[in-house]
Design goal:
alpha/beta; Phosphorylase Kinase, domain 1; Dimethylsulfoxide Reductase, domain 2; Barwin-like endoglucanases; 4-stranded antiparallel sheet; 26 helices; disordered N terminus
């Protein structure tokens, strides 16, 4: 590896570099000290928060300091792996791509493109190269079978935003730095660092609300670390968020408190919403929410009375049977209290790579343009529900999925019905994985193509700046040169193969096509560079990697860009490189109506699909299950399943425990430090018990992303702390119908003492 020469200050033996952490949504700035300047002896000696970063101002969580361990991890794959005689063996890159062609193309030729599927995992959006080149791979494979981790934890937010605003990416964000009242449901930013709301040092920003005299209310069945820091915690019945938000809206109408503020002229459907929430009186929803009617009414009045208020719901509200309605109703309450598109309320980011907003109607948002073959689940935001992937692999007939390409994902641990999912993956004719590890999913792959480490690639948060609570731009060049191909080269070569060009085709073909597609889009009528010559624009691009050349076009043609010389003071890659701590483009600003892409050009507050699903929500008020229910949780030291092979993050006390309320522990005969068997309709697991009054009675909790140490993996640290795979307990047949999102919370279970501890983890190969 070779040390790059940018964004650094040198001493005789050490150099300091600044980059953005790529390990979660917070986008914190890092100061990385490297020792040694020669290709053979350079290594990271220290990572700490960048105190001059314009967004994070020195904040860092335990994950950010582990980029050294991830880069140096001996388990990280440095060369491609091919499965031969039941074992994965390292091969040269050309040999690996020849193997891909040999195994994949007969499937596509004999069974058609619908016999293939693509799955993008969570880390894909932490990497602008993967994000940019996703479309090239999808176009080359030409399959309708697209899946991602988005239908595990966030598709309800996309669906509701699509229905309301015409754009599934236009979800409003809490203007946390200016709000006076923060109402949070199903969110735990003290552990997650924020989710679908990019805000480094979220805890510090919460403290600032309180310091300026504001109030924070957390609604969660667990008294999380975030709830403990709040002014008030309301323990809600899992899955009750939509009904409770509907009750708040009911109170606003009943007490004449509705005031839509400046957003009012852009709204349709307020009267329809009033009729829809009429049945959800606080008394009617109390059994389904556990929240007393007087508390519901008080919270409704507080949100209205606050000078500004933000209503923010996240994963706990999304991963339930009414996830899309809960997401919609957070925006309904925001709108009815005059806090939509208002400083201190819920607002929209305007990332630098997007053009200026323009008034007028758009194409709108629709779902169900196609459906899954077996159960007929509709497409949402271009994707099928990933929970339906196993049955599409298992079920015979035309269109049966026989080939799967995974990019940076671990569906064997992240999607429901894990046992069924693993059996389905094992039955595939061919599986190709772009992944740096031999993990629970890639152990089924025929070919594994490892991308560079996080320190061997450049970084720009293309996805997360679109959901940042302040408009920011920050670019990090690669710290070390990679020994193997860049990620865009890997994906481009896969695209060449899938297009029929062959394993030996020059990936520059795909690079040129990708760049030209973006350039042609920029010169279309109505765009910032309308009428400009594509060749002239291409000639102005710097000598950068293919992904960075595309990024340069996006940034220079965006609202803050230099428009290729037309706005000399605008943003360029050179300007970003000369500002290693980032460029602050200012706070969120009102964007209605220009942001709207509905066919009406208005906020469709009672969009038909949402309105039609309210009857199902009303029926649920009297269809309450008895017995305990399971909810998930996460820890600050992990990010789904992909941070468990770093010893410093998993050492110490056991974190993969079943949390049980003391009263329930007594009733069920389980005890702290003992083991319990948890059984659902889908499966059964044994986990250590943690008795705590931080969880509501009749609710138990397991963290997600665990279940390591299985044969065929190469994760030595994770194998020593395997934990329990909670997705063995989730049922893939139960989905939120509007979004196709998996239901991972509020799962009915039984809990009994386990006579023995689970077996010791198996050795990996």
């Amino acid at each position: 590896m070779t040390l790059t020469d940018s964004r650094q200050t040198r001493s005789a033996e050490r150099s300091v570099h600044f980059r953005t952490c790529p390990l979660c949504e917070a986008t914190c700035g890092l100061e990385v000290t490297v020792e040694g300047g020669s290709p053979s002896n350079s290594s990271v000696v220290r990572i700490r928060g960048d105190r001059e970063d314009v967004f994070s101002k020195g904040f860092i969580c335990p994950k950010g300091s582990t980029l050294k361990q991830l880069h140096e991890d001996p388990d990280r794959l440095r060369s491609p792996m091919v499965e031969r005689d039941g074992r994965h063996v390292p091969v040269r890159w050309d040999e690996a791509f020849a193997e891909v062609e040999q195994r994949l193309m007969p499937i596509l030729e004999d069974h058609g493109r619908e016999a293939a599927a693509i799955y993008h995992g969570n880390p894909s959006v932490h990497n602008h190269a993967s994000t940019i080149y996703a479309r090239a791979l999808i176009s080359a494979v030409a399959t309708p079978n697209l899946y991602s981790a988005g239908t595990v934890d966030q598709m309800p937010r996309h669906a509701s935003s699509g229905f309301l605003y015409g754009d599934p990416l236009a979800f409003p964000l809490p203007d946390i730095d200016r709000t006076d009242y923060l109402l949070m449901l199903g969110a735990n930013p003290y552990e997650s660092n924020g989710s679908l709301a990019t805000a480094p040092d979220f805890p510090g920003r919460m403290q600032a609300i309180q310091d300026r005299g504001g109030k924070i209310v957390v609604v969660d069945p667990r008294r999380t670390k975030t709830a403990k820091a709040a002014d008030e915690h309301l323990a809600i019945r899992p899955g009750g968020d939509a009904a409770w938000l509907a009750a708040i809206a009911n109170v606003l109408f009943a007490e004449g408190l509705v005031d839509t503020g400046d957003a009012g002229p852009h709204l349709d459907g307020v009267d329809h919403v009033q009729a829809l929430v009429a049945p959800f009186r606080p008394e009617a929803v109390e059994p389904a929410t556990w929240i007393a009617p007087d508390v519901t009414r008080r919270i409704a009045r507080e949100v209205v009375a606050a000078p500004t208020a933000a209503v923010y719901g996240r994963i706990g509200t999304n991963t339930v049977p009414f996830g899309t309605l809960a997401s919609w109703l957070t925006d309904v309450v925001t709108t009815l209290t005059g806090n939509l598109d208002r400083p201190g309320g819920m607002m929209w980011a305007h990332p630098a790579h997007l053009g200026p907003r323009k008034d007028g109607p758009g194409r709108g948002f629709t779902t169900g343009r196609r459906s899954t073959r077996v159960s007929g689940h509709p497409e949402v935001h271009g994707q099928f529900p990933v929970a339906a992937l196993p049955e599409e692999i298992e079920t015979p007939g035309q269109g049966k999925i026989r080939a799967l390409i995974t990019v940076a994902g671990n569906p064997a641990r992240s999607i429901p019905d894990s046992d069924r999912t693993e059996a389905a993956l094992a039955s595939l004719d061919v599986m190709i994985s772009v992944d740096p590890y031999l993990n629970e999913t890639t152990r089924f792959a025929d070919v594994i193509l490892p991308p560079p480490s996080q320190l061997e690639r450049s970084h720009y948060d293309l996805a997360f700046y679109g959901q940042a609570v302040r408009n920011i731009a920050n670019y990090s060049p690669a710290l070390f040169e990679a020994d193997g191909p860049r990620e865009e080269d890997i994906i481009a070569r896969l695209a060449c193969i899938a297009s029929g060009l062959g394993a030996d085709a020059d990936p520059q073909i795909i690079h040129d096509m990708t760049l030209d597609t973006v350039l042609r889009g920029c010169v279309k009528p109505g765009r910032a560079l309308e009428g400009r010559d594509v060749a002239e624009l291409r000639a102005q691009l710097g000598d950068r990697s293919p992904a960075d050349r595309v990024l340069e076009v996006m940034l220079r043609s965006g609202w803050a860009g230099d428009h290729f010389g037309a706005r000399p003071d605008g943003l360029t890659m050179e300007k970003l490189e000369s500002n290693p701590h980032g460029i602050d483009l200012g706070p969120m600003a009102p964007q209605l109506p220009g942001l709207l892409r509905t066919t009406s050009g208005r906020v469709e507050l009672a969009a038909a699909p949402l309105a039609a699903d309210v009857a199902r929500l009303e029926r649920s008020l009297t269809e309450l299950a008895d017995g305990p229910v399971l909810v998930s949780r996460r820890h600050l030291r992990s990010n789904n399943s992909w941070m468990h092979n770093v010893n410093v993050l998993v050492k110490g006390r056991e974190r993969c425990t079943l949390q049980v309320h003391p009263d329930d522990a007594t009733d069920w005969g389980v005890h702290d430090g003992g083991h319990a068997r948890i059984t659902s309709a889908a499966g059964s697991v044994v986990a250590p018990v943690e008795v705590t009054d931080d969880i509501a009675p009749s609710v138990v909790s397991l963290p997600y992303g665990w279940g390591h140490g299985v044969p065929g993996t190469q994760l030595s640290v994770a194998a020593g702390r395997p934990g329990v795979n909670s997705n063995i307990l989730t049922d893939g047949s139960i989905l939120d119908p509007l979004s196709g999102n998996a239901v991972l919370n509020g799962i009915p279970v039984t809990v009994v003492p386990a006579e023995t501890a689970p077996p010791e983890p198996m050795e990996t190969t």
